[in-house]
Write a structure and sequence with these properties.
20 helices, 0% strand, mainly alpha
Length: 401
């Protein structure tokens, strides 16, 4: 692919991302940086601080992420404040009805989301090195896919960060640098804990027993160090973090309907990978991350976990690409059933603050139709996702097809 074409594609996509960053807003972004601002005030243990003080703050929710996430938000916030000025602090602490009328709102949203753009482009760099024969297709699919545009730049979710560390881990494993690959999984798990589910597959791909041990230690090391850096770690367990992680993995283990589907799929993929001659991590990593969407009470931003792998398989098969497109469409249709006006029309509230008061779609639809429609879309989503899992296995194991 000519460099000029790739450069144009990247420039257009960056312009689109900057537009989304500035004009679209979800309160999750504000809540994350609201907690992150306390690091620059000298509060190193956010969990303990919130346990003692959160009900006296303007925003009373707990901080529900691992410690590295707090360090990330806390490190970028003073940079953002230096760029935008002190008004960003006033906005972060204003949870009243006038918070969407702040004059600097567009610049605040842009600067707070800016690190995600750097991570996004870095992730593309590694994707191109994993599949250099499909550089044009990869660039188009990654840079203009609606999932990352929505989850990262509209909502301001940080799932792009663990997605980046995970794809770097795959790249390093391909270079036989397994210990460093495991360390990257551990760093991703220090942001969101799902990469820990990928560790057994990486260990199976390691040929030497001693290297397997070092890889396991390297993956768990960031967790151990970060939790040790937070004195009085019991506050972490008392905070919403433990409850959120526990419920998240209970959903992944039992499924939203109490059926033990996810562990069956997980163990089956582990068994198939164990007996596979080619220890290519792309297929099991896709299975583990995409199955969370299929068999759990998911959030749309979790689709970022499997998105790099969906793109890598899509450039290799038109049928897979078509099914992936249907899957993404169903994800967004399912989004309409959320009782959250900020999930769709409310995203434009920086442009028109009164849009934040528009009722959510489920509250406007007749209640007799909504559950049936939701179940139908969910069923189609699961069926399409299962096809993607099977098709990805066939692509990864052509000798069995």
């Amino acid at each position: 692919m000519p460099r000029t074409n790739l450069k144009s594609i990247v420039l257009y996509s960056v312009a689109l991302r900057l537009l989304f960053c500035s004009l679209l807003y979800h309160p999750d972004l504000k809540s994350q940086y609201f907690h992150g601002q306390f690091l620059s005030a000298g509060i190193t243990n956010i969990y303990e601080y919130l346990t003692l003080n959160r009900f006296s703050l303007g925003y009373s929710d707990t901080f529900n992420y691992p410690p590295l996430t707090y360090i990330f938000f806390g490190t970028w916030f003073p940079v953002a404040k230096t760029i935008t000025g002190p008004g960003i602090s006033l906005w972060l602490n204003d949870w009243g009805p006038k918070s969407l009328f702040h004059q600097g709102l567009f610049s605040y949203l842009l600067i707070l989301k800016l690190p995600y753009l750097a991570a996004d482009l870095a992730l593309l760099w590694f994707l191109l090195r994993l599949a250099p024969k499909f550089s044009k297709e990869l660039s188009l699919l990654w840079l203009f896919n609606p999932v990352s545009l929505y989850a990262v730049y509209a909502m301001g979710q940080f799932d792009i960060l663990p997605a980046l560390t995970t794809i770097i881990a795959v790249y390093l494993a391909g270079k036989k640098r397994f210990v460093l690959s495991a360390l990257l999984l551990g760093l991703g798990a220090s942001l969101k804990s799902y990469p820990l589910l990928l560790l057994p597959f990486l260990i199976l791909a390691v040929p030497k027993f001693t290297t397997k041990i070092f890889a396991g230690v390297a993956c768990l090391l960031p967790w151990f160090i970060l939790f040790k850096l937070f004195p009085g770690s019991g506050a972490i367990l008392q905070s919403g973090l433990s409850a959120r992680l526990l419920s998240q993995y209970l959903y992944m283990v039992s499924g939203s309907q109490g059926v033990l589907i996810y562990p069956f799929v997980y163990l089956l993929s582990l068994w198939l990978f164990f007996y596979s001659r080619a220890k290519n991590l792309l297929w099991p990593f896709l299975v583990v991350t995409l199955s969370v969407i299929l068999f759990a009470d998911y959030h749309l931003q979790w689709a970022m976990w499997s998105l790099p792998f969906l793109v890598l398989f899509s450039v290799r098969s038109r049928k897979f690409l078509l099914a992936a497109g249907v899957f993404v469409l169903l994800l967004f249709i399912n989004l309409l059933f959320l009782p959250d006006q900020f999930a769709y029309i409310g995203l434009l509230s920086p442009v028109n603050p009164y849009l934040a008061s528009v009722p959510s779609l489920p509250s406007l639809l007749p209640q007799i139709f909504t559950p049936a429609l939701h179940q139908l879309v969910t069923a189609l989503l699961v069926l399409t996702g299962l096809y993607l899992l099977i098709k990805s296995y066939v692509i990864s194991h052509p000798q069995t097809s």
